[in-house]
Design goal:
324 residues, 12 helices, mainly alpha, single chain, globular, 3-stranded mixed β-sheet
């Protein structure tokens, strides 16, 4: 059996002799076992990944090359594009490798690292989106004081805080997840290592780890969501008080892209993490996780570049300069 080949048996002495199988690697269930479908999926996800790298890389290049975009809004967008490059990189290369092979395995350490970076990057994006919402609140509700409030120092502190908090939060969840004994099975019912499917393999109680996900994740997630929600309540109320329709349109256009990204990201991540394990369905979870882990990072640069005249202008200038 494939499972038994991936398990190493060892005798452990804990007061009395007991035989436990220790997991040394995990088997990722993947997306399909049919060879024809696997090659089609490989081509599709390779294309999506390359488009993601190209799109977000182009956003980074355009913002870095155009001095007109060196302001808080595009500073945070740079961080978002960097996250959208890193997030699929944590899972897609291994998924592509497994689609071409018959093993579908990942080492125990590899699984730990994959889960850690995935949760860290997802958490960082939650906090970054709330920081971007606050930036839009200041720009629309306090335009005369915008440059004073959103100083370079504050922007750097906010960006650093999102990354540090995201990675520290992930460290807690990773430790809680992988200090449990895994001896029942090593088949992860997902195409990458994530908290719910990995916890499902433990032969001990996962109650504490699940509560940490719900409580800590809930506090951080709800806190960041409330900052975003309150910011947009003030933004929308301010826009509605603008008398001219043209003024309303211009004001809304500055935050429309961010609002679309927020709705897409929160909708998928809340469905994936902030719910009890009893409601998880493997096929459903794979589809949703694919949306926020693979598809969303590809869509974000398209959303910002298609709806933002300044970004489109910067991209055109970069292309013209390259040709010259």
């Amino acid at each position: 059996m494939e499972t038994h080949q991936s398990l190493t048996a060892s005798s452990l002495h804990r007061g009395e002799m007991e035989n436990i199988t220790v997991v040394t690697e995990f088997i990722l269930m993947g997306l399909s076992d049919l060879p024809a479908v696997r090659f089609s999926l490989f081509a599709a996800f390779l294309l999506i990944y390359l488009v993601t790298l190209l799109g977000n890389g182009t956003i980074l290049l355009a913002i870095g090359a155009d001095s007109h975009l060196h302001n808080p809004m595009y500073f945070f967008l740079t961080n978002l594009s960097l996250l959208d490059i890193c997030c699929p990189t944590a899972t897609v290369p291994k998924m592509l490798e497994n689609l071409l092979s018959e093993k579908n395995t990942i080492s125990f350490v590899g699984c730990v690292l994959q889960l850690y970076f995935l949760v860290a990057l997802a958490g960082t994006e939650v906090f970054l989106l709330s920081a971007m919402a606050y930036d839009r609140y200041v720009a629309i509700c306090n335009p005369l004081r915008y440059t004073v409030i959103m100083s370079k120092k504050l922007c750097l502190q906010m960006a650093a805080g999102t990354w540090v908090t995201g990675f520290l939060n992930s460290l807690l969840h990773t430790v809680m997840t992988f200090t449990l004994p895994y001896c029942n099975s090593n088949r992860v019912n997902q195409y990458y290592c994530d908290i719910p499917p990995v916890l499902a393999l433990s032969c001990a109680s996962t109650y504490a780890a699940e509560m940490v996900v719900l409580i800590v994740g809930g506090i951080f997630g709800v806190g960041a969501f409330m900052v975003t929600l309150v910011s947009y309540i003030y933004i929308i109320s301010t826009i509605l008080r603008i008398r001219s329709s043209e003024g309303k349109r211009k004001a809304f256009s500055t935050c429309a892209s961010h609002l679309m990204v927020v709705c897409l990201f929160y909708g998928t991540t809340i469905f994936t993490y902030i719910r009890p394990s009893s409601s998880h369905h493997p096929d459903q979870d794979r589809l949703v996780s694919m949306l926020y882990g693979v598809i969303t990072p590809m869509l974000n640069p398209l959303i910002y570049s298609l709806r933002n005249k300044e970004v489109k202008g910067a991209l055109k200038r970069v292309i013209v300069n390259k040709r010259q």
